[in-house]
Amino acid sequence: MQNLIPHFIVAFIYMAVAIDFWRAVKSPENHPSVRENALKLHSAMIALGLLIHGWLLHQSIFSIGFNLGFYQSISAILWLTVLVYWVTDRNHQLHSLQAFVLPPAAFFSLLPAFFNEPHFLPESGNHLFLAHIWVAMIAYSLFTFAALHAVLMAIAERSLHHKATLVKLPSFPPLMVMESLLFKMIGFGFILLTVTLVSGMWFSEELFNKPMQFNHKSIFSIASWFIYASLLFGRYQYGWRGLKAIRWTLAGFFLLVLAYIGSKFVSQILLGH
Hints:
Oligomer: single chain
Shape: flat
Number of strands: 0
């Protein structure tokens, strides 16, 4: 039971910040200074949640060998996504994104406490292999952030046109600023995804004597790479923006989810490999 307490603390912090943010910004009687103090407190609480969450991941993944099971992977990706949000929010005022980032992070931070079957990776003593894994994780977290940010942009755009939305945003930055940030994240993520695919080919040849295994993971990963490459080219060549950019972002992320999370879920959870 004691091992569960830190996980519940992390989940509580993330959810408390998300709920209190909506309560604070939607309350008309709150003075702007009160809201500003609340946002500073939220930032400090998220930092505390990140510290505890990161410590839990370190204990779960590195305590014996290199244990990176399905639930540890998702929790680590969401931890990185919250970290990206926390750093970005300090410069771009993306407070509304809390509603999209923190609840799934709270949920997935709990799962390793209940489902902690070991899944030790081969070549765990190889530092280049570990670098390959973490570059991939950072790439997935950047694309996760980009996808959630694209959803925020879609809601913001509908709100500007006075269209009905399921989520009422209390505040959001100008769309041009959000759009610029979206493509920065996609650009960084694309570079890391490219490094991941190239290094993955090298390790595949080292481990399986094949430059690449054509399975669901590699096919969906390459398809996602082409979608993001097309999106960046369309942005540079034709100035793609708005709903077109949002749709391409979400399509690439969907394929990336199928590539990594889908294949890992089938392999480890359904088939028990």
